[in-house]
Amino acid sequence: MAELTHTDAVFTPKPSQPPPPNTVGVVGWLRKNLFGGPFDSVMTIIGAGLLAYFAYGLFQYTIVNAVWEADSYRECLDVTQGAGACWAGVDKWMNNYLYGRYPDAEQWRVNLGGIILAVWLAPFWFEKVTQKIAVGVSAVLTYPFLAGALFLGGDNGLFMQAMSSVALTLFAAVWLNVAACYSGRRSLGAVLVQVTGFAGKDDRLYKWVYLAAFAVGFVVAFIFQSTWNLAPVQTTNWGGLFLTLVISGIGISTALPSGVILALGRRSKMPVIRVFCTAFIELFRSVPLITILFMAVTMMPLFLPVTLNPDKLVLVIVAVCIFAAAYMAEIVRGGLQAINTGQYEAARAVGLNYWKMMTLIVMPQALKLMIPNIVGNFIGLLKDTTLVSIIGLYDILLMVRASGQDPKWLGMHTEPMLFAAFVFFVICFAMSKYSQHLERTIGGGYGRR
Amino acid sequence: MKKVSLFGLGAGLLAALTFTAEPASAQQSTLDIVKSRGHLRCQLGTPAPGWYMLSDTGKWSGFDYENCRAVSAAIFGDPDKIEVQSVTSAVRFTAMANGESDMLSRTTTWTLFRETQLGLDFTTVSFYDGQGFMVLKDAGIKSALELKGATVCVATGTTTELNLTDYSRTNGLDIKPVVFEDSNVRDNTFFTGGCDAITNDKSSLASTRAKAPDVSIFKILPETISKEPLGPVVRQNDSQWKDIVQWSVYTMIAAEEYGMSSTNVDKVLAETTNPEIKRMLGAEGDLNKGLGLEPKWAYNIIKMVGNYGENYEEFMGEKTVMNIPRDGSPNALWTKGGLLYSPPFR
C-alpha cells in the first residue's frame, strides 16, 4: 500500500466549466428576457415588429422623404405629396420658435442671459468649490433682475439698476470664490480677510470686511451697468422657447423655497399661519392652472385702475409661481411626514431650536426623499406653461401652431409639432436624468431606481 | 360667477394694496389713453391666413390688421404705432372689457347678443362672410341640399356648428357633424376622407382649400347658410372712439368709390375740384374736429394704408392663397352691386 504523500493530499481544483453557451452574453440575455417561452417569443416578435414599423415610418417621414430646401409648403408638397417632412419651413421659422418676435439684432442679449446663468451655476459641479448653497441662493435671488434688465433693455428705474448691480457683484464673487478655492485657499472670504490684513484679528470684524468688499464691487458694477445702452424690447415681443423658459424657469426656481415655507406653515402650531397656509394651498391647488391664468390676466385688470396697467407677462409669472408653490408645498409636506418623529425629538433633545432642527436635521433628509417628486413637478410645470398660449402669449407651442398659418407655409402642421415635441423631450429628459444623478450622489441609502 | 367670488378675495387684497378706490372704468376717453400711451392696442386672433398673419420675420399683416393700421394712421399719422394682441377667441371679449385692447378686428360676427350683452359696440362691416360647404369635386354634389345623411367636419363651440345643425333640421338633411377643436386636425381629416364635406365661413374654406395637397379637387358649394358680417369692435359708451374706428373703415371704402388709392391720392388732392373729396382729405372744412383728429387723418389713411380695394387685392384677391372672388359678392362696392357703402363725408 502506497504511502500517502503530502502532495497527494492537496486539492487542486479543476477550472470551472463555462456556463452553457446559451445562458451568457447576448444570446443568454435574449433567451432570458425576450424569448423565455412561447408566449414571450410571440410577444417579442409582435412588439419588435410594431416598433420597427413605426420607427421605419418615422425614419421615412423625417429623414428619407424629407425636404430641406424649399420656399413654400406648396413646393414641399409637390415633391413629397405629403409623404415626407418639410423641414425647410421649420428652418425658416426657427428664429420665431426660439425667440418669438424678439428683434433679430437684439437676440444676442437672450443668448448672453442664458450663458450668464449657465456660467453662474457651473461651480455646482466643481468638486473643490465651497459654499455651493450660496452660489444657488445668489443666482435664484438676484439673477432674475439682471436677466430682466438685459432682456427688457431701456431704462427700468433705480431699483432694477441696483438689483442688477447686486447680481453682477455676486456673479463676480461666485467666480472669484472658484478661483480662490482652486488656488488652495478655503474660500473667497478667507482670501479677503488675508489680503486686508485682518487675518489674526477678531472673527466678528470679518463681516465688515465682506461688506466693504461687497460695497466696492457694487459701486463698480453700478457704474459698469449704467454704461449699458440697450434698446428696449417690450415683453409683448418675447416669445418662443425663450418665453417658455422664462416663465417655467422663474416658476421652478421660486417653487421650492415658497413651497418649503408654505409646507412648514401648514404644519406650524401657530393657528393664523397654519390657517393661512392651508387656505392658500387648498385654494390654488383646487383650481386648474388655466383658471388661475385667466383670472390673473383677464379678470384682475378689471379690479385695478386703468393707469396701473400691469404687464401681462408679470401677471402670468405671478400666477404660475402661486400655482407651482401650492403644489410644491404638498410635496414638501409629504417629505416632512416621512421623517420619523424620533428625528425631531432627538434634535430637540440636543437643544436645537426650531429653525436649526429644520435646516440641519429634518430638511436635508426630507429633501432627499422628495427629489423624484420635486423633479416630476418641475417637468409638469414646464409642460403646463404651454397653457399661456390660450391667453395670447406666444410661447413655443403657439408659435409652432402659428407657423402653419403663414400663407407661405400653409398646412405645415406635423413638422413644427415634431420639433416642439423634440425640444420638450430634450429638456424634460435632461431634467429627469439629472434628478436620477442627484438621487445617486446625495440620496445615499435611499437612492434606488 | 362662483370663480369670481373665490378670486374676489385675492383680487380685493391686491386692489387694497394699490390704495386706490377708483374703479377701472374711469371716464377717460379711449382716444386720450391711446394718444398718451403712444400706440394703439389692436386685438387680432391667432394667425389665420388672409386675415391676420404672422410672418417668419415676426411681422403682422392681413386684411383685419389693415383696420388697425388705418386707425393708427388716423391718430398718429403713422400706420405702425400698434401693439398687436393676438389672443384666442376664448378671451377676445374679456380682453376688450378689461381695457386691455383698444379695438378688436378679428373676423368677429356682428350679432344682437354680442352687441347688447357683452359691453361692446360693433362699428361697421368690413367684410361680408357666410357659412358654406366644401366637398370633393368627384362626389358629384351640386348643392348643399344633396348632403342628406352626410358626415360634415366642423369646428366645435362656434356658431358654425349651431348653424350646421339648424340648417340640417330645417331642411331635413340628417347631417352627422364630426366636431374638432383643432382646425388643422379638422382639415386633415377632411383631406384624408374622414368626412363627406367640411363647413365653415366661406373665406375660411378658401384657406382650408389652399392647405390641401391637391387644391384642384375641391369645390365650394353655392349655398350660403348664414350671415356673417365681420368688422371691428370697440368698447361700449365711448362714441368718439367708435366714430374714429368706424370712419377709418368708411374712409377706405369711400376712397375706392372716389377712385383714390395710396398711389394717386397726392395727385387727386392737387387736382380735384370735388368738394366732398376736399373735405375728406382735409383741404376744406373742419370734419376732423368732431373726431378729435388731425385734419389730414383721412389722407393719411389712404396714403399709408390704401383703399378698400387695394387691401382686398393684397390679402383676399386672386393672387393670394385665399383667392376669394370679389365681383358679384357682397364685398363689392354698392356702385358695383355689392353691399359696401360709406355714408357721405359732409
Helix content of chain A: 55-70%
Distance between the termini of chain A: 64 Å
Query: Regarding quaternary structure, how should these chains be classified?
Result: heterodimer
The total beta strand count of chain A reads 0
Terminal CA distance of chain B reads 47 Å
Taken together, the total number of domains of chain B comes to: 2
Q: Helix count of chain A, per DSSP?
A: 17
Which chains make the largest contact? A-B, 50 and 51 residues
CATH superfamily of the largest domain in chain B: Periplasmic binding protein-like II
Number of DSSP-assigned strands of chain B: 14
Q: Note the beta-strand portion of chain B.
A: 15-25%
From the spread of the alpha carbons, the general shape of chain B counts as: globular
Number of helices of chain B: 13
Mean of pLDDT of chain B? 88
Highlighted features:
heterodimer; A: 449 residues; mainly alpha; MetI-like fold; 3 domains; 69% helix; disordered C terminus; B: 346 residues; alpha/beta; D-Maltodextrin-Binding Protein, domain 2; 2 domains; five-stranded mixed β-sheet; three-stranded parallel β-sheet; 13 helices; 14 strands; 37% helix
Give structural notes.
The complex is a heterodimer of chains A (449) and B (346). By secondary structure, chain A is mainly alpha-helical. Chain A has 3 domains: 23-64; 93-102 and 237-449, MetI-like (MetI-like fold), CATH 1.10.3720; 104-232, no CATH class. Chain A is built from 17 helices and no strands. The relative contact order of chain A is 0.08. Chain B is α/β, with parallel strands linked by helices and 346 residues long. Chain B has 2 domains: 27-128 and 230-336, 3-Layer(aba) Sandwich (D-Maltodextrin-Binding Protein, domain 2), CATH 3.40.190; 131-226, Periplasmic binding protein-like II (D-Maltodextrin-Binding Protein, domain 2, 3-Layer(aba) Sandwich), CATH 3.40.190.10. In chain B, 37% of the residues lie in helices and 15% in strands. Chain B has 13 helices and 14 strands. In chain B, the strands form 5 sheets. Chain B has a 5-stranded mixed β-sheet, sandwiched between helices. In chain B, strands 4-1-5 form a 3-stranded parallel β-sheet. In chain B, a hairpin with a 5-residue loop joins strand 2 and strand 3. The longest helix of chain B is centred in the last third of the chain and has 19 residues, at 239-257. The radius of gyration of chain B is 22 Å and the shape is globular. In chain B, 46% of the residues are buried. Mean pLDDT of chain B is 88; it is low at 1-25. The interface between A and B is large, with 50 and 51 residues.
